[in-house]
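Troubleshooting log. The previous structure file for this entry was overwritten by mistake, so regenerating from the original sequence record. Sequence copied from the archived sheet and checked twice against the printout by T.R.
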Amino acid sequence: MEHVVACEGHEVFLREVLHLRKAVGLRGQNLLKEVAHAARVAEDLDAAWEVLAEAIQTVMRRYGIPKPYEKLKALTRGKGHMTPEVIHAFVETLEIPEDAKDRLRKLTPATYIGKAPELARRC
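Regenerated output below.
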C-alpha cells in the first residue's frame, strides 16, 4: 500500500486516501476517521523534531566528533519541545563538511526514515 504523504498544511493526498479505501474497504464515516487519524499523525510527526537526533548522531560519529550521544542528550533532554530552529542551530555548530550540514538541514521528521529500507529488506 502506498504511504500517506503529508505536505504543507498537513494535507493528505487524495490518491492515497482512495487507495486506502479500496484496500481495506472503508466507507463513509470510517474513511473520514482514517483521514482524520492520518492528518493527526502528520501533525504529531511534524512536531517531533527530536527524532532527528539519531540522524545527527550518526553523522557526528561518521566525522569523528567526540561524545555525540552526550552532546545530543544535552540538547534534547529536559529542554521541552524541539523546534527546527534549535536543531538547525545545533547543526551549524558541528565541525563537519558543509555538504553533510546541508543534508542534515534538509531532513524533517516526516522525511527521515533512518534504516527502515535496510531493515525492510531483511524481512
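Confidence is low (pLDDT under 50) at residues 1-13. Archived copy saved in two places this time.
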